TrEMBL record:
The keyword Transmembrane does not apply. It is found in: Cytoplasm. It comes from Seriola dumerili. Pfam families: Leu_zip. Self-associates. Interacts with BBS9; the interaction mediates the association of LZTL1 with the BBsome complex and regulates BBSome ciliary trafficking. This is Leucine zipper transcription factor-like protein 1.
Length: 298
């Protein structure tokens, strides 16, 4: 069958179809034989027949045989249409447009090659395929358009895999940026907390020192009350002065705290931390925009 351009698979399919056609042909020939046998058994019971009787029997036999042959030809044509329907349906899945050349169906040389193949190789191939299952029809013309379609499908799959990998990379970068932002915010919070604790500790120490001073002055004042009335006036003035000083120091501490907060905001560490947070926020916005472009549409 190499003369017909068949590969091994197509050759097996051709053999399967020839086997099917042969079984239908054998069945129809048996039916025709039975028509003759029935005529012999039912009509040929006398020794002599007139011309009219012979003509009547032959006409009846002709009608029966004609009907059987016509039925077989019609059934063969319809079967071929179903076979073509299967082939065309499979070809459409690969965007192929099959065409047939009707003139080749009467090519005597090709018909003789098919007949020769049926006589020689058909029986051997028939024995080899008795125990094998019948596969579905494969699409015709494995090369050409089908090969290009397979390459295009492979290219699209490869491109899709690259896009998926790129999307996973962007998602990883986005998660990394979010982690960096979270770490930066936590570090800034810890830094403010440490500096705040240091400021509170310094203020608390200074207030404690002032309280100790006030307590000492108060103790001196009480001791001075027992010694001299003149000293009492001085002690009162000193106490008032100390209270004023305490208020002044507390006010200075409040101003110092505000100034310290202002200076901290102007420090390089604060500016760097703020710049890092600003850059991370911009990176996150850019990554979100890029992720929106790669999201598959419904």
């Amino acid at each position: 069958m190499a003369e017909f351009g068949f590969n091994e698979h197509h050759q097996n399919e051709a053999i399967n179809y020839m086997r099917f056609a042969r079984s239908k042909r054998v069945l129809r020939l048996k039916t025709i034989d039975s028509c003759f046998e029935e005529l012999k058994d039912s009509r040929l019971v006398e020794e002599t027949f007139t011309v009219d009787e012979v003509r009547e029997m032959l006409d009846g036999l002709q009608a029966v045989v004609r009907g059987e042959v016509e039925m077989e030809l019609i059934n063969t044509a319809h079967t071929n249409v179903l076979l073509l329907r299967q082939l065309f349906s499979q070809a459409e899945k690969f965007y192929l447009r099959l065409q047939s050349d009707i003139s080749e169906l009467e090519n005597r040389e090709l018909l003789e090659q098919v007949a020769e193949f049926e006589k020689t190789d058909f029986k051997t191939t028939d024995k080899l395929n008795q125990e094998t299952s019948k596969p579905k029809l494969a699409p015709l013309n494995e090369g050409g358009v089908s090969e290009l379609l397979n390459k295009e499908i492979a290219r699209l799959q490869e491109e899709n895999n690259k896009l998926k990998a790129r999307l996973r990379t962007l998602e990883s970068q986005a998660m990394s940026a979010l982690d960096d932002k979270t770490k930066a915010e936590r570090a800034l919070k810890d830094l403010k907390k440490v500096q705040g604790e240091q400021q509170l500790a310094a203020q608390s120490q200074e207030i404690t020192s002032l309280e100790d001073t006030v307590a000492a002055l108060k103790e001196d004042y009480e001791r001075s009350l027992c010694t001299s009335a003149a000293s009492q006036k001085d002690l009162q003035e000193n106490l008032i002065s100390a209270k004023h000083e305490l208020l002044r120091v507390q006010e200075q501490l409040a101003l110092a705290e505000k100034e310290l907060e202002k200076k901290f905001q102007q420090t390089a560490a604060y500016r760097n931390m703020k710049e890092i947070l600003t850059k991370k926020n911009e990176q996150i916005k850019e990554i979100r925009k890029r992720l929106q472009r790669y999201e598959p549409s419904e």
